[in-house]
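User: Last request for today: this protein with N-hydroxy-L-asparagine, please.
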Amino acid sequence: MWGIIATWSMSLDSLITAGQELDLETTAADTVVSAIRQVEDFPFYKSVGYGGLPNEEKEVELDAAYMDGDTLSVGAVGGIKDFANPVMIAQRLSQEKVNNFLVGAGAEKFASAHGFQRKNMLTQRAKKLYEQRMKELSKKLAPYTGHDTVGMVCLDKMGSMVSATSTSGLFMKKAGRVGDSPISGSGFYVDSQVGGATATGLGEDIMKGCLSYEIVRLIKEGKSPQEACNQAVFQLDEQLKNRRTEAGDLSVVAMGKDGQWGCATNIKDFSFVVATADSPKATVYVANAHGMQMRIEVASKQWLESYFAKRSGSN
Ligand code: SD4
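Assistant: Here's the final one, the structure of the complex with N-hydroxy-L-asparagine:
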């Protein structure tokens, strides 16, 4: 058995390749890192890697993480600037015995010392969108819209599982703000003996429920990945609404150690991509909550065209 699941339709191309690799017995580690690199390198995705939108100070600060489900090793970077592939730095950090999660200047120093590729991550398009948003903000528009973190959970033929994330976080965030994506248990978690999960949405709220760990915990208790995703997301959504009047965006995908998968969301039209040994063609699904259940449908051609047109336009 093998399988890979990823947040958002932007992962489609990388999952087509990932599926082929996993079928040829490439490890989950290699597959996930190259799949996320592909998303990081694509300049038109505004919320990951090159082309990611900047913080309030017009600087692109990136968060990323990598977790090995066999050893439970975790590596992560927060608020790193000017490096092309934060996920690779996170993977490298996961091999250290200590100092696994580095932020800001310390993370950049580590990355330089280990030969990772430097790159100015602020594209002309991101600059233009920043100027545009500054104008809108002077008319009092909300700053934190538009965010699509890439998160993946992968199972290889040898039974090893890996999870990883990469993001530029929230557009117009404060300098130094770190979201859930590099935080173990919140943005991601994986245990090869159980399964893994990864989250996307408003990091500040995802962290309040340690959402990814909660899903893996529920799978361990015997829930299917779909049941675990539903329970974790709907409960946190309700809790936040009861205690704080509103809940931010919460979306998750998960995969069990047997390749079964699940997804839950509290937003409209959350998209994700899956490929498994049973269903090897990487497929984009669109999920919407209906009461306490999810309605998950294969994305239509039209839906996909509109998704990619929106992302590759100038705004
Ligand atoms: C964050 N969770 O930094 C990330 C943003 C995100 O889809 O997932 N966007 O809070």
